[in-house]
Amino acid sequence: MRTVTSPAFSTCSKITRQTVLLAAFFMLINSFVQAQSSCSAFGNPPRGNVSVMQPLCGIGGSLLSGFNDSDGTPRSACLYPPSAPVAGVRYPMIVFIHASLSNADSVKLTPLFDDRNTVNISGGSTTGFIILAPQGRNTQHFYPFPDNQGQGWDNWYRQLSPDGDVTLNGTVFKENVDAATIDHFIQQQVATGLVDTDRIYLVGWSNGSAMSFLYGTNRDNIAAAAVYSAPDPFGAFDDPCQQTPVSGTPADTQYVRLFASGLPTFQLHNACDIAGICPNSRLIAPQLKAVGGSIELDEIIDAGLVVSSCNAACGTNPNGDPTNPLAASVGAANHVTWPILQTPQMLQFLQQHPLSSRPKP
Question: Fewer beta carbons under 10 A from the terminal one: N or C of the chain?
Fold first, then answer.
């Protein structure tokens, strides 16, 4: 028997569907407005701490602790000096900013851990370098699942003034606690007298690369940075408070000031990367160039070889493409694999860029 739909029922159903869609639309708009209203001169509100994680620094390293950030969260770091340091020698120091969903000791997944004993990135005859690896926090991220929460760095709250807390129109904006934590552990090591302060470098991975960009372009004591697979720290995915960096006073909350934008940087990323972030990574260089900075080297790799462009099959959206299946498979595998072939080039870049040659703000 053929079923006949009642015209009255069909009309009622259409009205109901339209009402539901209209309600959903207004809920979406309301959500967007609420998100926008929470945006400040420094982007999003600070990411709240969920839990405390202490890294297992392991053989060759020591745990640094005893410091609480301004939220009262205990913070820690791993320190990996050369295995046989020479008395009286000041060593270059690489500050390794780990990827999200990983820990400070993940530096052992890279050649850097062994290179700290054998590679010369100094300006003279000193072989070896110190690795300082601060530990991130378990926080909420504006990244796709499963990276919407976990260990990592808050590059969405962009109050990284080198002067600490900032007061605007009677409201106090605390310094980004992750930036303050990195400050603390760098200063702690400098105080030992074992660090060549002309050669303090950043090396980041993924979310740690985004934080390296944000931190290094606001600190004039960092000589240079070499980063791998960075999403844009000023806007990626569903970040509701994306901003454009400027070097002076921002006109409104759509802009954020960088205090030391001239950070020499070598950026390396995959043609096919996780969540389709290759086009998003390509936004960073023109943003920094517009404020007087630069990415001196911006290389895209495919199976370890340098190529000229992103792989369009892995996503073309400049904001990232979390639903792209190739990015979720091949791109994810690329993303979690450190670029071993390019590591010597990254270290050479750092060696060629001491702080004394960095452009002044």
Answer: N
